[in-house]
Description:
The protein has nine helices and 17 strands. It is an alpha+beta fold. A five-stranded antiparallel β-sheet has the order 3-4-7-14-12. The chain has a four-stranded antiparallel β-sheet with strand order 2-1-5-6. It starts with a strand and ends with a helix.
Amino acid sequence: TVVNTSGLTHVVSLTLSPPSLSKRNQKLVEIAPAWHHPMNVRKAVQEDALKLCRACHYKNAGTVEFLIDENGRHYFMEVNPRVQVEHTVTEEVTNIDIVQKSILIAGGASLEDLGLIQEDIVARGVAIQCRITTEDPSRDFAPDTGMLDVCFHSAGPGIRVDAAAYAGMVVQPFYDSLIVKYTARASTWEGAIRRMRRALFESHLYGVKNNIPFLLNVLSHKDFLRGVFDLNFLENNPQLMETTTVPHDIKNPASFRTSHRKFDELEGYLKYISNLVVNGHPASLGADPSALHALNK
């Protein structure tokens, strides 16, 4: 439950998000709101989150995390006293700029000053966030490094891109592997999934391994499409890590025809040709230096 407070008893809950899909404590897919939980469960979680924040005089934005079992009972986990990476899904369904509001509250503004009234905060539609990382799912999400040769992001209605990646960027092993977040918003769960699949399919990130094929697998899984998933979803579906292929036809995600290996081969050819054009034929590969000199003339 994402909360925003100005201290003391002035506390509002922005939205309740369901369990994320994560690997080794790294969240990969987030959605908002928790539409597949009964309303009574959602209200109970939000009320306890508000009680906790009031009791400790919590001030500013934060996230109160709970676990919900199969019987709808919730158990407190922790409070993250910060704006989280997944705040974009909350912003998209509530139309509240959490970062801006946090800065204003830190400057002394109250929730009333900012127009944050609980009765007026309503989640509209559904949002999905996918985190693009430079990891190889087929190798248990081993991190990859190197230069990002091609970097083209998808765009369009209902698509939000939060990125620091660019063509020519060198991905190093010393930092987090997250390079871009895509957030898709639509009036329905099905519409949000369609928009996210389209965004992932149309993006072009080459030069280092990434988890886009894995995310496409998740967004095509029958249980995920029905909203039936929990914290063990990835462990129970290891086939999602098999990313040797990607959908060729976005209208039919089950048809896997285009091999990632072919993309890698084509990329290698283009790098080789580009190097020849810029630097000429390398003598280290056995080219006759005198012939090269004559050719360069």
